[in-house]
Predict the structure.
Amino acid sequence: MVMKLTTEERFWLKVEKSNDESSCWLWTAATMRGGRGSFSGAEENVAHRYSWFLRYGPIGKGLFVLQICGNPSCVNPTHLELSATKRNTRDPAERFWEKVDVLNPDDCWLWTAALTEKGYGTFYFNGQCVGAHRWSWESVNGPVPDGLVLDHLCRVHDCVNPGHLEPVTIAENTRRAVAFGVYGSANRNKTHCPRRHPYNVENTYVSKSGSRHCRVCIRERLRKYRHDPAFAGRAPAYQAHYSTTGGMR
Ligand SMILES: [Zn+2]
Ligand SMILES: [Zn+2]
Ligand SMILES: [Zn+2]
């Protein structure tokens, strides 16, 4: 018996996908002049435009789908953006914040676009791929000082709330990761967090990579950081972000 493939299945057979959403997904079949993939028999006959269609729905009349990674053979939907012009002239901050799920000022703000394999958000800015949490922190505080890395106080890798980030040395970052434990897919089938709080709708953050995070534990970690004398005055971003982010959403 011969199974007939759907148009969508035929499409993905021609794509070299990666688990890492921050990497490009390459079109391996016919291309047009300029390197963009061509694909026939679908609603859109340009490969990256069809990929957009599959993920987000019909493309409005006269709109362009831009490959913000700059790679003409890339069809990774998280690298694609809709635009009224052929060139991406949109404000980076506008592009950035429309990819962020902001709930409350204090909560984790989850990145909804491309993630690295370790679950960190990535953002295309000035022609290169940068860490989304880093972009967010720097937009409030200026450049991260040389030799320091940003530590997620909440330990949620795809969180871009600048108030949950603190510049620390690499050694300190590693020490904290070990001290607070690593969160991830190992807990998928569990009904409670390691500290027995329920993974119910109200209490659970589900990141795009599928890992779950207990809100009670996140709050307790943040409270500990804020009140521990060892951390006093070391998270200046935390208070700063209210005034600067009030109009984001
Ligand atoms: Zn790409
Ligand atoms: Zn957070
Ligand atoms: Zn918990």
